Amino acid sequence: MDIQKMLSKMRKGVTAYKMISDGDKIAVGVSGGKDSLLLLWLLAEYRRFSPERFELSAISVDLCFDGVETDYTDIQAFCDKLSVPFYIERTQIGQVVFDVRKEKSPCALCSKMRKGALYDVAKKIGANKVALGHHADDLIDTFILSLLYEGRLSTFAPKSYLDRTNLVLIRPMIFIEEMDVKSFTHLLPVKKSCCPANTNTKREYAKTLISHIGTEVKNIREMIFTALIHPERYNLFDRFESEIDKF
């Protein structure tokens, strides 16, 4: 898939959920992974022909695992090429989560602290929106995680308001699949994750489970995604309860 087709898919999500408005200052959370780097590239390209005029910046929150600062030289060069200001926030999150708290299931705390740091920087640089690189497969995986580990039918929203920070969170790649993202990996300055829990998480288990089901149900991800985004396919008990008094 070429960049134009990816832009078309992203524009579909941006338009459907009214993610971008004139005058927006959007900060992209850049972890160094393929998803966030591709999002930054797509938004930088989209900025050239978008009917809405907006500013773009990139923020990386360095978790500093083992007290070592991450080298972001390649990502800085990537941002310079895209004409996007790049900010690095050095933190002690890695040490707090793994050395101080010694979390057995570190992902939830790490995510909360990392997002908190990201939002703080976004506010400092004057952004009103934060963009994250979650795609269609992330939506599905989050739904399965909530179902299995929380007993909830829940997932993230493509656009949401963060009342504590007065920021709007957007996920412009909501209609882009992970296999399409992977096809661009070789063009991106992807940084290998240094997280001690990498590949050994509940999210990875959810991915493996869906892949296993996919050996029998070939379009499993398409079916789950369609069920999640189309309200006319929603038919759970709260809908039945609202109809009880009618007959």
DSSP summary, beta strand count: 6
How far is the N terminus from the C terminus?
52 Å
Q: Walk across the major sheet and give the strand order.
A: 3-2-1-4-6-5
- Tell the overall outline: globular
- How large is the radius of gyration? 19 Å
Output the keywords.
six-stranded mixed beta sheet; 10 helices; 6 strands
Explain what you see.
The chain has 247 residues and is α/β, with parallel strands linked by helices. Helices cover 47% and strands 13% of the residues. It has 10 helices and 6 strands. It has helices at 3-16, 34-49, 73-82, 93-100, 107-124, 136-150, 178-182, 202-214, 220-229, 237-243, and strands spanning 24-29, 54-62, 86-90, 129-131, 159-162, 167-170. It has a 6-stranded mixed beta sheet with strand order 3-2-1-4-6-5, with helices on both faces. The model has no long low-confidence stretch (mean pLDDT 92).
SSE inventory with pairings:
Elements: H1 3-16, E1 24-29, H2 34-49, E2 54-62, H3 73-82, E3 86-90, H4 93-100, H5 107-124, E4 129-131, H6 136-150, E5 159-162, E6 167-170, H7 178-182, H8 202-214, H9 220-229, H10 237-243
Parallel strand pairs: 1-2, 1-4, 2-3, 4-6
Antiparallel strand pairs: 5-6
Helix pairs in contact: 1-2, 6-8, 6-9
